[in-house]
Structure formats: C-alpha cells, structure tokens
Backbone:
C-alpha cells in the first residue's frame, strides 16, 4: 500500500462494477461547460478502468443545487462521451431502483454517470443510509476526487467503509506532488499566495513561514496586512477579521527565518470595473475613493525575480482582479514567471488555474492542482477525510 492506501492500478476490476468518485464540478454558463479542466484530469483513471473491462459507475457533485431541477449532469455526460469515445449513459438519479437497473445493464468497458450527488440531501450530511445504497451499486470503490477529499460526504468518505477501496490516479498524483512540496521541497522554496481573504490562507501562511524560504503576498488579502500596519487602504476590499490575523502572521514572520514580502506598489481604480479609471500608485497608501486592484509593476518584477531563483514554487491565488484586463498585469506577470521558472512548479486553487489557462500557460507548469480547499488543508498538514477513509487494511474490511 503506497502512502497507506491501495492504488487503482492494482485493483481487480475486470467485469466488476466500480464506483468512481470523480470531481466533475465544472463551471457552466447557460448550461454550457466553460472549462473542462476537471473532466480532463479525471480521464486517466476512467480510461484505465474501461481498458481493463470494468463496469464504470461515475459519481460527482455539480454546483450547489437547491432542487433536483438544477445542475443536471447532462452536459458533463456529453463532454465525457466526447473525450472517452465510448458509450456513457446518464442515470435517472443517484440511487434507487431505476439507477440499479441501469447499473445492472452496464456492459464491461462502458460507463454510467449518476446524476448530481447533491440532489441527495444525505450527500453533504454523509448519511450512512445513502452511503450504503451507493455501495450496493458496486463491487469496488475508487476515489479520484481530490478536490472534494477534504469533505466528509457520503460519496467521498461514507461509501469507502462499505467496499474495497482504492485511490485513483489523479488523487495519487495530487498527494505525491503536494506532500513532496510540503515535506521535502527543492530549495529555495518560494510560496506565492493571493486571493481575497487572509482567513482562507492563514493556516498555509503560518505553515510556510516555518518551512519556506520566501512567501510573496498579493491579492486583496494584502490590504489586511496594510491595515494592520496602519497604512491607508481607501476603498479597497479589506477582510476586517483578517486584520488581526495579519498582525499575528507579521509577528510570526519576525520570529521565523522565512522572508515575508508584501507589495511595494499598486495599481488602483476608482471602482471595481473594467471601465474604471486606472492609476499606477508609487507606494501602497491608497487614497480615499480609490481601491487597490492589482500589484504594481515593481512588485511584479520583484516577485518574478524571486520565482526565477526558486528551486520549488507553489502559487495559490491571483495577485489582483485578473479577470478585468486593466488589472490583470500583476497576475499575468506572476503566471509567466511561474510558467518559465526552472524550478519545480505547482499551482493550486481554482482562480490561479483559471488565470494560467486564460493566459495560455496551463501546460507550462509541472503540476496544476485540481484542489482548492483540499490542497490548502493538505499543505497545512491536516488530514483529508476522503483520503483517511482509504487507509484501511484488509482485516478492517473484513476480508
């Protein structure tokens, strides 16, 4: 058992019903998929099982439905079928007699996609009854949904206690990449953290102040640090509860051997809009009526130099409002620096991944993680329920 669990590579799947928890939670607009990165990341495990003549039963959540009329898996089924070039049927639900009949009719080498797992209230509640019903659809269970592994849900944790369970190829690679970065990185280790809230990243900040050589901070979260230092932030987005956390991080940085860098210049706008008046601010004191929307060119240059000299790089979170072209330069500069860095590069988080893809750099990093919250919790050193549930030996499963 590598890393304490068994790999799908070693699973006896020929002719067996295999329930695969994938992360197929893709963004939609008007019912159309706008980015199928997660679907493509799930393909290697699915293709391996199909090639080995398994009867593949796929399950995933999609969005946050409030009823069974929202977020059907239909567009996901269509995209999967296009990528896999084999029949992929869509079940009428998640569990029940009709779904069981569809599974019973499934042929080896074919796939069935269950409907949105969040159509069942018991999914997020990790309902034992739902987990048992899901287990009744299969002979084996494979968890390949790293992006949901930090949640103890019926499809990620509960069902693993009822079936012989294995890690999928994507889950394995995610754990290998992120734990290596956390536990044994090539030096110097440079960590780039952005996004809106210090509270979302405080655990990672504190962890990497202990083990990284340099931490570079950008995004709206930097304004909590500026406020903690008594710097004017104008109308910038400031997470009020993040100010106290930022003070604690600054104090911890002074005690550590890690270099913590904040922006030294900013790009500001008079509103949160692509049509806003834009100014480059030589400094970080934001005037009233203005808001910081990107790191400035000098900060971008400095961060790029730090990244270029790194042995390992972790990037999680954009440097500003990159989705608006006037305020995208900082994130673009960091993305290009990471893509061209000679060291080992890992990018995590949905917004960072979206930025790389938007800039045409998605194929230019060593690992593009599919996990946002999951990657942060793993990097903090927390146990992920979906992974812990796989770490059981044969005796515990009663075999």
Residues:
């Amino acid at each position: 058992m590598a890393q304490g669990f068994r790999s799908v590579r070693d699973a006896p799947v020929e002719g067996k019903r295999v329930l695969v928890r994938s992360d197929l939670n893709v963004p939609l607009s008007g019912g159309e998929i706008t980015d199928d990165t997660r679907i493509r990341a799930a393909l290697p495990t699915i293709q391996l099982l199909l090639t080995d003549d398994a009867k593949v039963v796929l399950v995933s959540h999609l969005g946050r439905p409030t009823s069974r009329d929202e977020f059907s898996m239909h567009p996901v089924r269509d995209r999967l079928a296009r990528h896999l070039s084999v029949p992929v049927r869509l079940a009428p639900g998640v569990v029940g007699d009709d779904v069981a009949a569809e599974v019973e009719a499934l042929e080896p080498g074919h796939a069935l996609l269950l409907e949105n797992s969040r159509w069942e209230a018991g999914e997020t509640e990790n309902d034992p009854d739902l987990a048992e019903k899901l287990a009744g659809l299969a002979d084996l269970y494979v968890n390949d949904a790293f992006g949901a592994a930090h949640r103890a849900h019926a499809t990620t944790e509960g069902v693993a206690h009822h079936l012989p369970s294995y890690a999928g190829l994507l889950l394995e690679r995610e754990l290998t990449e992120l734990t290596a970065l956390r536990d044994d990185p090539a030096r110097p280790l440079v960590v780039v953290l952005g996004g809106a809230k210090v509270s979302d990243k405080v655990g990672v900040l504190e962890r990497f102040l202990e083990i990284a050589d340099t931490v570079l901070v950008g995004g709206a979260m930097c304004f909590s640090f500026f406020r903690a230092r008594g710097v004017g932030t104008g109308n910038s987005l400031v997470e009020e509860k993040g100010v106290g956390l930022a003070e604690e991080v600054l104090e911890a940085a002074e005690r550590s051997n890690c270099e913590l860098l904040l922006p030294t210049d900013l790009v500001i706008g008079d509103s949160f809009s692509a049509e806003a008046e834009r100014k480059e601010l030589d400094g970080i004191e934001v005037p009233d009526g203005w808001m910081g929307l990107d790191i400035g060119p000098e900060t971008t240059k400095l961060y790029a130099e730090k990244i270029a000299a790194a042995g390992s790089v972790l990037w999680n979170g954009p440097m500003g409002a990159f989705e608006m072209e006037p305020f995208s330069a900082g994130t673009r500069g960091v993305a290009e620096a990471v893509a061209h860095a000679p060291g080992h590069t890992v990018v995590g988080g949905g917004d960072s991944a979206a930025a790389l893809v938007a800039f045409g750099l998605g194929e230019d990093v060593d690992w593009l993680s599919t996990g946002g919250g999951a990657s942060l919790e793993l990097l903090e050193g927390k146990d992920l329920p979906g992974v812990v549930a796989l770490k059981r030996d044969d005796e515990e499963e009663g075999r």
Remarks:
- The domain at 185-380 is CATH 3.40.50.1260 (Rossmann fold).
- The longest helix spans residues 240-255.
- Residues 274 and 371 are 29 Å apart (CA to CA).
- DSSP finds 14 helices and 17 strands in the chain.
